[in-house]
Amino acid sequence: MDLESKARSLMNSKPAQVMVITPHPDDAEYGVAGTVARWVSDGKQVVYVVCTNGDKGSGDPNMKPEDLVRIREEEQMAAARSLGVREVVFLHHPDQGLEDTPEFRKELVRLIRIYRPETVATADPYRRYIWHRDHRITGQVVLDAIFPYARDHLSYPDFLKEDLYPHKVREIVLWASEDVNYRVDITDTFNLKLAALRCHKSQVGHIPPPELEEWLRQRHRTMAEGEAFQLAEAFHRAETPQ
Ligand SMILES: [Zn+2]
Predict the structure, then answer these.
(1) Chain segment 173-186, per-residue pLDDT in tens
(2) What 3-state DSSP class applies to 21?
(3) Ion ligand 1 — residues with CB under 5 Å?
């Protein structure tokens, strides 16, 4: 049996077709939730990985970081449930504290080898100028983890002992990209995206609901410009070398 088929037959593997790796609770809803709803309705299993605990994401001077962590985790769970995401993995790194380290990379490789996704969605690390450091680092480390580290069996010999075998991700889908080459029609899933975003009350609860809806609708209308459909999520998509 080759390593790929061996891995598929092992208990340690919990295959999902799509893995969404988000820097903070809420980024996936802004970036890819309309497409997630489509993947789910196409019968795909989707898993979220949330890299940081979001404990800096509040403008409320009375908010305690430990309370914010709990609130944001609950909000992320609610949003994921509303979209039909199968599972959410929280890595609990501190907000604004991500670094491109061998440990973080290995943590992501481990998850890629456990879930064995065909598609991985994350933040585009190559957005220029003003861009959240956690987004830049998440995107970069995800891309490195996919290729070559998750693919090569000699990358982490210790993983082989844990029955975590090499895996080739087929495609990457990057949100917030300045180099868009792929647009997904979210006209029919826009309301699900909006509802998922509204689960993040600590982030959007201060915006009057009609204002949030109009802002989001306009944002996705703009992303659909030139297409035959009304509302889109826009990405940079690439296939990984096989
Ligand atoms: Zn973020």
Answers:
(1) 999 999 999 999 99
(2) strand
(3) 23-24, 27
